[in-house]
Design brief:
Blueprint: E1 27-28, E2 30-35, E3 48-55, E4 73-77, E5 113-114, E6 117-118, E7 121-126, H1 137-140, E8 141-146, E9 151-156, E10 168-177, E11 182-190, E12 199-207, E13 214-218, H2 222-225, E14 249-252, E15 262-267, E16 278-283, E17 286-290, H3 300-307, E18 308-315, E19 324-327, E20 333-334, E21 351-359, E22 365-373, E23 378-385
Parallel strand pairs: 14-23
Antiparallel strand pairs: 1-12, 2-3, 3-10, 4-9, 4-11, 5-6, 7-10, 8-9, 11-12, 13-15, 15-21, 16-17, 17-18, 18-22, 19-21, 20-21, 22-23
């Protein structure tokens, strides 16, 4: 693992500022609606719509999510600018099939609806962390479009009651093109209340002109990095869903490493891969994300500013010492982002890759790490030490 050299520079004055931390007008059962973490431009005007709706409540798997009983529905209602009645026939509405992946003897259909080649308009329900949907998706929910209400409809194919419940909706609407930049109100109507009663919520989806910088957690490398695959600990390959190991919320012992490494995929502005990023430790609970810029010119402080692409801040228990983040020496770039991969007309999208290992300090409690990019989004990881 790479060691991090401390810096003499203090925290920047605007440490806690990140553009995507602003509220999005969320009400009711919606906490947020954002560009999906598997793609750089799911909320960019003129591109296919690919977004993640997070419902209210904690994503902690120890916190109960929602249930949906057989025949009940979750409806995502769109404004008319997103015309679900005019889905591109190259990407028709489909459920991700089962078995998945298909048996070796079964050839892929002409337009497969499979992760890595999603030539369809589809959606899945997540349990609260990346690449771990209700699985198999088609045996849990089926998809349809209500043309009268311009709504995408999940209908429960069975009673969905298992822990941790329904936490997020990933809408991979490859056949729907994003409208002009602006804020668009999305509504969720879910029969997930007591006895199947209706719960609702709304949020503003911000469609932007160009892709913003983004750092995104992925679970597809967890098994390889934790030595669960043949050959021992390795940087790859990635695995297809479901990825049941949760790298977002973890438990460990004091003065010990979290069981699962963190892997992030990164893009800069306009979806350019933010590759070869490394971390520099500034203080006990603060790191910079740095990318060397050989073209930088001018005084040292200007060159530093151009090199710093993001930040990490650890919120540790009072008095905690020895907490540490180390970088794992894996490739700093990916030829194509995992999951979406080589979908014609959609991907592949090259991406940067950053692998980190968190070590808890000497004090029991919750260690929360926030990572964000300059001008981009924020992502949060939680490790509880006993």
């Amino acid at each position: 693992m790479k060691k991090n050299k401390p810096s003499m520079l203090g925290l920047p004055l605007l440490l806690l500022m990140a553009s995507s931390w602003a509220g999005d007008g969320a009400t009711g059962i919606i906490q947020s609606i954002r560009n999906a973490p598997v793609i750089a431009d799911g909320n960019v005007a003129g591109q296919p719509l690919d977004v993640l709706i997070t419902l209210d409540g904690s994503l902690d798997p120890n916190s109960a999510g929602r249930s949906l009983m057989t025949g009940d529905t979750i409806r995502v209602v769109f404004p008319p600018e997103f015309d679900l009645g005019n889905i591109d026939p190259a990407y028709p509405l489909n459920n991700i099939p089962f078995p998945f992946p298909p048996p070796p003897a079964s050839p892929l259909p002409e337009r497969p609806c499979l992760p890595g080649n999603l030539q369809c308009t589809t959606a899945v329900i997540l349990k609260g962390w990346p690449q771990n949907p209700l699985f198999p998706p088609i045996l849990s929910t089926t998809l349809s479009v209500d043309l009268a209400d311009n709504a995408l409809v999940f209908t429960a194919a069975r009673d969905i009651t298992e822990s941790p419940g329904i936490k997020q909706l990933h809408l991979i609407l490859n056949g729907v093109t994003n409208p002009a930049p602006g804020n668009y109100r999305i509504r969720v109507e879910a029969e997930t209340g007591p006895g199947g009663s209706l719960e609702t919520g709304e949020a503003l989806l911000r469609i932007i002109k160009r892709a913003a910088p983004s750092i995104n957690p992925t679970s597809v490398f967890v098994k390889a990095l934790s030595g669960q695959l043949e050959g021992g600990v390795a940087c790859g390959p990635g695995t297809n869903p479901p990825n049941a190991d949760n790298p977002v919320y973890q438990d460990t012992l004091v003065n010990s490493a979290a069981p699962f490494a963190w892997t992030f995929i990164l893009w800069g502005r306009d979806g350019v891969p933010l590759d070869n990023v490394h971390i520099e430790r500034v203080s006990r609970n603060y790191y910079r994300l740095v990318r060397d810029n050989p073209d930088a010119r001018g005084p040292w402080w200007r060159r530093l500013r151009e090199r710093v692409v993001g930040h990490i801040k650890i919120d540790a228990p009072p008095g905690a010492r020895h907490q540490l983040i180390e970088q794992i020496d894996c490739p700093g770039s990916l030829p194509q982002a995992p999951v979406i991969a080589a979908t014609p007309g959609i991907g592949p999208q090259p991406a940067g890759r950053l692998d980190l290992q968190f070590h808890a300090g000497d004090t029991p409690g919750v260690y929360t790490s926030k990572l964000w990019l300059v001008g981009g989004n924020v992502t949060t990881k939680v490790v509880t030490a006993d």
